[in-house]
Amino acid sequence: MSADDRLGLLYDLTSTIAAEGLEIYISKAATVMDQVADTFYLKDEERKKITDPERLARLQRSLLEAAARETPSG
Predict the structure, then answer these.
(1) pTM
(2) What is the DSSP string of 34-53?
(3) Count of alpha carbons within 13 angstroms of residue 64, beta-carbon side
(4) What 3-state class would DSSP assign to 63?
(5) Contacts of 9 (CB under 8 A, 6+ apart)
(6) With b meaning 16 or more CB within 10 Å and e meaning fewer, what string describes 27-52?
(7) Nearest CA among 65, 62, 58, 67 for reference residue 38
(8) What count of Cα atoms within 13 Å lies in the side-chain half-sphere of residue 35?
(9) In this predicted model, what pLDDT tens digit does every residue of 1-47 receive, in sequence order?
(10) Which of 24, 34, 46, 48 would you call most buried, defined as having the most Cβ atoms within 10 angstroms of its Cβ?
(11) Cα separation of 60 and 71, whole Å?
């Protein structure tokens, strides 16, 4: 997944991950021109790798929605 960089993008992504009850144990971020590439290594509530296909699909949908949000005005 890639997204245009914008104010609040990282916050929206990490908030979405937290709302799913997941923990970020490694994070890597890079910005090239107006594109951002953030890589998150996640663990579940039991500190294990997420392997459930339904949970992964739900997380992907949530992250895509968060990435598509526009910067709040003001």
Answers:
(1) 0.82
(2) TEEEEEEEEE-TTS-----H
(3) 7
(4) helix
(5) 3, 36, 67
(6) eeeeeeeeebebebebeeeeeeeeee
(7) 67
(8) 4
(9) 677 788 999 999 999 999 999 999 999 988 888 777 889 999 999 99
(10) 24
(11) 20
